[in-house]
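Predicting structure from sequence has reshaped protein science. With that in mind, we have picked out one protein's residues alongside their backbone shape tokens:
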Amino acid sequence: MIFKILLFAVAAYALYRLFMNDRKKSVEQTENEEAKRVADGTLVRDPICGVYVEKDSSFSVRNGDTVEYFCSDDCRQKYIKQVQEQRKLEE
């Protein structure tokens, strides 16, 4: 009886380690892919909330020579308000 429990515990631990190792590799692979997309410019960082978004499917605003990209219209509106307030202070 104790042998069966011990065998079950060892098998459960082995499966747990196998699952956790696969999960760790998956997370690392996802992080590496995201870093590559950031490096080649397909992902850009939202200046308000810091989320990385795809350049093609994001909200954008041109501010002078630069284009800023946002994850949502709310972040875009917050950015516009910040820029307007900053311009008022500069005047």
